[in-house]
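Hi support team,

I'm opening this ticket because the web form for multi-chain structure prediction keeps timing out on my end. I have pasted the exact lines I submitted so you can reproduce it. The total is 785 residues across two entries, so I didn't expect it to be a heavy job. Is there a limit I'm missing, or should I split the entries? Thanks in advance, R.K.
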Amino acid sequence: MAKNLLIVESPAKAKTIEGYLGPDFLVKSSYGHIRDLVKGDDAIDIENAFSQKYEVPSEKKAVVEELKRLAKKAEIIWLATDEDREGEAISWHLAEVLKLPDDKIKRIVFHEITKPAILSAIQNPRQIDYDLVRAQQARRVLDRLVGFELSPVLWKKVKPSLSAGRVQSVAVRLIVEREREINAFTAEAQFRVTAVFRVDGKAVLKAELPRRFRQVEEAEEFLASCISAEFKVNSLEVRPAKRSPAAPFTTSTLQQEASRKLGFSVSRTMLVAQKLYESGKITYMRTDSVNLSDTALEGARQEISKAYGDKYHKLRQYKTKSASAQEAHEAIRPTYFGQHTVEGDAAAQRLYELIWKRAIASQMSEAQFEKTSVKIGISTREEELQAEGEVLKFDGFLKVYMESTDEEDENTSEVKGMLPPLNQGQSLELEQMQATERFSRSPARYTEASLVKKLEELGIGRPSTYAPTISTIQKRGYVIKEDRDGKPREYRILTLPTPDKTQSLAKFPEGKIKKETATEITGAEKNKLFPSDVGAVVNDFLMQHFNGIMDYNFTASVEKEFDEIAQGMKEWTRMLEDFYGPFHKNVEETIENAGKATGERELGLDPVSGKRVAVRIGRYGPFVQLGESSEEEKPRYASLRGSQSIETIGLEEALELFKLPKKIGSFEEKEMQVNIGRFGPYIQHDKKFYSIPKDMEPLDIAEEKAIEIILEKRKKDAEKTIKTFEENPDVKVLNGRWGPFIAFGKQNVKIPKGTDPASLSYEDCVKLSEEAKANPKSKPKRKKS
DNA sequence: CAGTGAGCGAGCTTCCGCTTGACTT
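Hello R.K., no limit was hit. The queue was backed up. Here is the completed structure from your submission:
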């Protein structure tokens, strides 16, 4: 039996470490935290110095029992959890739950999973740092108090089951405020002048006027003044430039880059990364550190020299910028730099490749350029046109990796190419000059990944919680991730043309400026985060009553206090008292005094009936109310649709909603009706529902069109049907998305492997259905009734 | 896959951070 039991947080880590240590060591994992505050409201005794009641959750019982058993037999228990606040607390919980006496405990830490690092850690054990543990308890207690006092206020004042918390509420705030900025934004038009010159008879040199024109007349005047102008190179400047690689990935930068380059959601990224980690391909994927271990630096150096040559290597040590970083792990990197690709599904391969490239590139030399700026004089004007070119002299890290950006600014997205050979004073022949109307752009909506970036900048949340936070705010219905169509927008283009390419512009007959309008699509969004009305109402409520918690600096300021506790400079109960006193008073006052938050907005009067029209949120979401509630008459209600919001909807648009449901004639002697449901517009006919294609306006659908849609759907259903039964029309064998299955009334029944769906009899279906009923899918739902 | 939206009251919801399964449609 091993004399030593070493406990880490992650089982994958445990497996690796076991290989480094001899048979005297048994290495096990705690699977993260083993205890948490009890579920209900009595977890924290506020009167009694915030003393906490912990319990081992049921899914952790087996782990704890096993560790208990092993700890009993071991002489020394090495607590090797992560070197941060949470890790220290896990060690303390282990000591408590496993009832480990102080003289059997040795607390050790290491930042990289290598044999020398672990052996050296074992040479330098310490005891549990209780100040750090208290800092964690303060963090845990504060989060529970905030979450479990604030959420019930929302249940009373907005609607049940909502939630609020130190992290999620600020995440929602960012999205709500950004949406309002976008709504308040008015695009300003400016004319941007570009010119193309011919050099040696070829149209090659593109230049731009640095200044923009607000008025179309100014732009026109500028172009007109260029008609008979001569152009020449006023100055030519060549200077070297270089670009350095980005640091290796942290959780947040990996999520951002995987979103931009691979289109992964943050949760998908984490799922795939977890698999790569478990199979030993990459280091730990939940980290805020950009640091690489010495062995990693050496591994990267060797690989770069081997694959690209020594001159491509440059040793770089990165420093983590974020003040909130706890740096218990390395940056995310491949375990072995020699392995350029991995097996597995496409997602794993692509994510690995991204991680490998980024980590390798981070140890490579700069890319070197030669930048040329040209200023072109116009004989008739003071202004100069500018052209810029770039030549790559040495690719350096660009050989493997190029970081992408969120902003695809039209001014920078044009790849700067090489310029033709030019001399100072050289005359240039104008091919074409254009003034194009361009519009200023509103701030960008958040994607999941750009929200993570922002949260990290604010020091809010941790690598392990970015993905869960984003799914929480969506699950609560505060935020919706979706695509939205853009709107067409016209813009003007003024062109100075040369009708005949051989003819110079000066000779162009009347020098007429061609004016055109073109159309572009603006405001189209893909996978962006939009606030819901509930999100906005909850946000405004919290902003009004709990300003302190909603402050972007709240986390940063409590973190500072947690640090002071960790350093033994501050009493943790004192910190909590100072926070909780005023906070709790505020909660009570708000419950007492605040009215219901509905976000109600009056839109005006219905021109037809003269009744009041108002929007607000209710139990079932945002809706319009037409008329007041009174003895004689009830108001009419209509739910808002799709992307409509109580904040932006207008009177006319709101009244449109009362045109539905609408009867549109009959078919097969049954009435048809159009309406809009949870999944979009549909036609209802004979108790059945037929969804209306996305590109059709439900209000425009007439009898004929509706019948067409019904028949279409019936045809499609018939194609999907493999078999029906005379015994019971509710039972069918259908071809589904995942293959054939039995539709048994409302119940879907799987067909066992190896069974030919076409050969099933009605009796078989009944039998299979009953079997399925007898073995219901056990959902891993935590609960007790 | 509709509609509903008053008010009562029982019993429920809820936080953040650390980990990995066992679930399938």
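A quick check on our side: The first helix of chain A runs from residue 11 to 20. Let us know if the file doesn't open in your viewer.
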